[in-house]
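Order emerges. For instance:

***
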Amino acid sequence: MSFSIRLTTEEKELAEAYAKLHSISLGEAFKTALFERIEDEFDVSIGAEAYQEYVASGKQSRPIQDLWDELEI
């Protein structure tokens, strides 16, 4: 699959500089950036869902010092 995007001159220069800095093609730079963004947003979504489940469970956190004391650290 391929696609095209329109960039301003400044955007193109920035993208080309990034690709050159990392010794990758411009296409690979965009592909990497896209999938990193998708993964980041997915991780945030999963984290928010897990936090909501934790809150709904009624569990309470405790001070880290309690854990350290328990583990004799």
About this structure: Residues 9-70 form one domain. The longest helix spans residues 26-57. The mean pLDDT is 95.
